[in-house]
Amino acid sequence: MSEYRRWFVPGGTFFFTIVTFERRCILTTDTARACLRESIVEAQARRPFRMVAIVLLPDHWHTVWALPPGDDEYSRRIAAVKAGFTRRYLDRGGLEGIAGSSRARRGERGVWQRRFWEHTCRDEDDVKRCVDYVHWNPRKHKLVRNVADWRHSSFHRFVSMGEYGVDWGGVDPCPDWDQPE
Q1: What pLDDT does 1 receive?
Q2: Single pTM value for the model
Q3: Which domain holds residue 75?
Q4: Is 128 inside a domain boundary?
Q5: Nearest-10 Cα torsion for 33, 172, 4, 104
Q6: What is the pLDDT of residue 5?
Q7: Do the domain assignments include residue 19?
Q8: Tally of domains within the chain
């Protein structure tokens, strides 16, 4: 068993990678996008957080969240999003992978990997690196030639806020950071 320990910082900003079960390519479908959006809104209503950035790829998503002061319960939020998505997605005809006996004993469905990857942002430079990584990710995976061509991302919001030019992403902004995959 891994010795990984999560770092809980009240009011912190965190980068997450959440992956589908068996890396199934479902997240960029219209149904999955709607289910995820609704599940995030529902989770935010119960336990507020600010979504700084997001990108959906077919088999995983990256996001940066800022939690309210004094609050470090990102695991509950991620669990709520995953549970809400699973319920909605299966209710709307989405298919799940074949769950083994271990998942069956725990009542888990074959929609998400059990765990998620988390990185606690140390400072504003680290937040920027994480946001850049989020937006660069479709290009990294060779899904588009230009970052601006990927629709399932907060990139265009950042362009409208003046954070990026529409032609941003000609080179990898985070060439030494591959851990989140």
Answers
A1: 46
A2: 0.91
A3: 13-123
A4: no
A5: 30
A6: 60
A7: yes
A8: 1
